[in-house]
Amino acid sequence: MSETAKIIINGKEYELPVITGSEGEQAIDIAQLRALTGVITLDNGFTSTGSCQSAITFLDGEKGILRYRGYRIEELCQKSSFLEVAYLLIHGELPNAAQEAEWEHHITHHSMIKEDIKRYWDAWPQTAHPMALLSSVTSALSTFYEDSHNVYDPRQVEISIHRLIAKMPTVAAYAYKKSQGQPYMYPINRYNYIERFLYMMFALPVEEYKMNPVLVKALNQILILHADHEQNCSTSTVRLVGSSHANLFASIAAGVTALWGPLHGGANQAVLEMLDKIHADGGNVDKWVAKAKDKDDNFKLMGFGHRVYKNFDPRALILKETADEVLATLGVVDPRLEIARKLEEIALSDPYFIERKLYPNVDFYSGIIYKAMGFPTKMFTVLFALGRLPGWIAQWKEMIESKETKIGRPRQIYTGATERPWVPVNKR
Ligand code: CMC
């Protein structure tokens, strides 16, 4: 017999179905609640509200588990390429050899962007934040492909997916080149996805570019770790925008914007800015930890805490090792990294952080790695977006293909003035 939940409202009892997921998670299905009772639920920040059923990513915040389509993140990081993981997320299964070759072929051969697009950002200031460029160019790309906006045509969706995954690194790298006043570097087909991006970022037309395999491996791993994280702020945004049947480019552009905020993807930039500030202030870590604990001070330790992970962030565990490897290989000596290590040490042993289950999250280590790799701070969140793109696409596709999907339209409890008469200006 299936489970139900009972709720008593104004003395009357109602029974609601309980849904159980494949990992035993349970939810009360309240879809009929308002129709039955006239009452709605209220859940600021959606801490207890599921927005969909999804077969893509499983996350257990208490146990620190993260799996894509059933595969452990730790194993994918060791054995897969980012493009393979993208295929897995979007199509549900790891590709066989022929599928993988075809997938890579499509992504490789869609990586150029129209020359006109480059002129589009000539109008932008050189200091433009690359996340602004990324979201607006992603949206602008849709204007070149208006023949593939039908969200219910599988071929149009497929080619939009190829174009987005292939072109996003080119857009990201060009945004960086623009900020440096350097010439844009065209994508090169003989490179794999990660190599191609590093080349477009860091190569110059005047000299040979030397690929560093340690950086290629680290970036592959970081992008895999960011590839999906179920119903977070940006993914929920992509689903919500997509539920209005906005085209895939427009939905992804909205996700980029949501990711930009410092409480979400923007935290990796905020971590480095915080380390800069502490360094400029003389490196007194204790002082800044005290500020983070002070209720009257709105300073937070960026890169610490997570809405879902309450014991450790499995992505951060992997990245901590990657950070050690990258820093050792590159021989980077940076006082900010010392500050980071001290912060990590203090926060892991301080009762304030222990009681609140605040641990270093993925952004704490990814920011440090990006810095060591030579990415400017403003590019950090763009790298998060490159990693999250397959997850956004997979979630959008699942939403569009689901028979359950309706346009997203939450309700509210109104707390404003009740009806009152209009008052002439001389009487206000
Ligand atoms: N530094 C100091 N105190 C903190 C921090 C922090 N980074 N994070 C949470 N707290 C305190 C918070 O003040 C509250 O204390 P109290 O119970 O005394 O009022 C308690 O811990 C619970 O925090 P919360 O704000 O209710 O937690 P939340 O689930 O709403 O927020 C968070 C999660 C990630 C937004 C928050 O921890 C934060 O702002 N962290 C810093 C930003 C950051 O690193 N974000 C990246 C998240 S990982 C990447 C991603 O998936 O987007």
UniProtKB/TrEMBL annotation:
One of its GO terms (biological process) is tricarboxylic acid cycle. The active site is at 306, 363. InterPro entries: Citrate_synth-like_lrg_a-sub, Citrate_synth-like_sm_a-sub, Citrate_synthase, Citrate_synthase_AS, Citrate_synthase_bac-typ, Citrate_synthase_sf, Citrate_synthase_typ-I. Pfam families: Citrate_synt. It catalyses: oxaloacetate + acetyl-CoA + H2O = citrate + CoA + H(+). The keyword Glycoprotein does not apply. Pathway: Carbohydrate metabolism; tricarboxylic acid cycle; isocitrate from oxaloacetate: step 1/2. Keywords: Transferase, Tricarboxylic acid cycle. GO terms for molecular function: citrate synthase activity. GO terms for cellular component: cytoplasm. The keyword Manganese does not apply. Belongs to the citrate synthase family. NCBIfam families: cit_synth_I (TIGR01798), PRK05614.1 (NF004126). This is Citrate synthase.
